[in-house]
Write a structure and sequence with these properties.
Number of helices: 16
Number of domains: 5
Largest sheet: 6 strands, mixed
Shape: globular
CATH architecture of the largest domain: Orthogonal Bundle
Radius of gyration: 29 Å
Strand order of the largest sheet: 38-42-43-41-40-39
Number of strands: 45
CATH superfamily of the largest domain: Transferase(Phosphotransferase) domain 1
Helix content: 10-25%
Strand content: 25-35%
Amino acid sequence: MFFSFPFLSSLLLASTAVWAAAPAGLQSLTPGNFIAVEDENQFLISPNGTFSSGFYPVGSNSYCYSIWYTNSFEKTVVWMANRDKPVNGEKSRLTLNVDSNLVLTDADGTIVWSTDTTSNGEIQLQLLETGNLVVTNQSQNFIWQSFDFPTDTLLPQQRFLKTSTLISKQNRGVYLSGFYCFKFNDYNVLNLLYNSPSLSGIYWPDTMVTVFVNGRSPYNSSRIAILDEMGGFESSDKLKFNATDYGLGPKRRLTVDFDGVLRLYSLDESTGNWTVTWIPSGARIDPCMVHGLCGDYGICEYDPLPACSCPPGFIRNDPSDWTKGCKPLMNLTCNSINPSKEMDFIALPNTDYFGHDWGYADKFSIEMCKNWCLSSCECTGFGYALDGTGQCYPKMGLRNGYRKPSTAVRMFIKVTKDEYSSSLALRHTTNELNCSASQIVLGTEHMYAEKSNKFRSMGLLVGVVVAIGISELIFVGFGWWNVFRQRVNEELVNMGYIVLAMGFKRFSYDELKRATKNFKQEIGKGGFGTVYKGELDDGRVVAVKRLDGVLQGEAEFWAEVSIIGKINHKNLVKLWGFCADKHHKMLVYEYVKNGSLDKFLFSDSSQVLGLEQRYEIAVGTAKGLSYLHEECLEWVLHCDVKPQNILLDESMEPKVADFGMSKLFREISESGFSKVRGTRGYLAPEWMMNLKIDAKADVYSYGIVVLELLSGKNAYGFESSTVCKDGGRDTDMVKWVMERAEKGEVEKVMDPRLKVEDKQNKKKIEILLKVALLCVKEDRNMRPAMSRVVELLTGYEEPSSHGDVC
């Protein structure tokens, strides 16, 4: 649900009147003062600067009050106050009340989080050098401390108690509470467990052996553990370990990561990067043994990284979330009178599903095991040992699946006979979406991407060709290889010429590092990466986007960039160049002076957009999207139309940004505010219905943007920012606008900052509202194409050619 966003330099405190002239990085906050989310230049800082504390962006206009390592590369967060209830990017406050209660309020004044503490006398809020955020009294006693309420990380000197729990985040860059926990169990032993609404289970230490074999003891009920500054960890259950770089010096953290693995990290402050210096030992801590990873029926295997797949005849429940597992193509119905009727099994070699055994028997034949499972509707399948023991394990549920060559088990999954027949022609299913003229796998992380079988097929094809032409290859092998190598080199060289002929440059990493002064001035961030302002050697000001998660090789990256580089329209941000330097992938765009539309529309900017300006922004944005959808030689979807991706130049002319990004990503790692491509509030209904996505999804998002232009309200967080005059509260902007439009109460929809008295303005409002409501129709077939939107907004009085080249 959240983007992995750029890090703003955090925010420090206080009312503008009191602290406007104060330097950034204050040591304390005193009663009656607050930290404002809008102030990007203020933040609390620990005495030696190791830690900072302020509002951390976790999504589009969404923030959590946090603590992070100041000198880590991506400002690694170690604590959050409101990780599951982010606040608005406007008017949210962290206030220290005079009674010592520390309160976090949202834009509408709602209390989102508080310490619920009271005290008399002098108090203050401080961030200690240990990373502990504390409220202290005049005697320097702690009234409240963040160390008592960890999120996913334990810091050195932070006591881990019987009431403490580390809870992973949901995904990389998604800070919501996940399903993996580290805590003491009821038997006084530290465990890692998977705890979802439908399933819970310990996966470390290995539950198949006793506590004592694992080197633990359940007899100490004090339940306390600590990580010291040397990198040593010690617990009351006799769990002990040391970092591989044990000793004073490195900053460290112990974190339960989103993949369920507990890791100790050490910080290299010269680079800002973290190094793993310890992970739990034991056979059941490797990623494919983490419970819940691939969901019901899902199978984890290494290829070479952990990857999830569905058995033949099964498809994913949710294309964006592997933890929801797989489902059969046909419903599995069991006849309780005759359970074996119309049922059969799919056999999977070297595969097992851990746990949920319905029974156990040894010295069984496979047929005996099949008949046993067929005799009961409770049995969903069985595992059969191939070590000669004849062990049979019927299963009540098929969860925690994994496949390894060393697994001496064959898994049999119960299916209908029709499904068994159809599954013989199927391979592991891959849920793909045609967006931006490229295939995009909607997965949770690149390491859990679905496994493709195309390489195996290619291998078989090559094998056939080699077998047929073996004699020819013997005679001309060397000559063929030289020709092949020469052609490959020619293709790469030609690709470089094509890129240069298109009028943009290939930059080296060092050039862009110099242009951005070591990526110093961050001007924005989205789901695909961080954007920095820079100046090239020729004096041109540019915006450099560092891409996150692009795994292509250089040749493939060039091919995709060449398509984006061909796109040229006055209402689209121009690509000037790129960098493909080893693992560094960057795009260099023209710098658009006035930034994104949301800063004018939703902030307390002194420059209020007039109706005429808003109308022209709607027209220009429509033209840019129409060009992408219908006029380009390569059909391109945007998939994330929102004000943050509409930039305004010095003349307030709109330029759509971030188009074509999905071409560079074979898998979506951006979670946004939903686990599909895009941002909550702007997503068309078909995203949630797993329907094929086409240009009408962009049309819907555009319609939401037009409603925002009219109302001045943000579609995201609409519930928290919108309270109707009649006392009710709406959560859906479209519904809210439609209800008022049907009642003829258009004035209640309009941004109160607009002046709309004259007839011409009223006519423009009428057109904008009509276009917006057409674009947000639930049935996408009723939405107009973007070219039709341009006609409706302009009367189509302009010539058909824009003079732009695709």
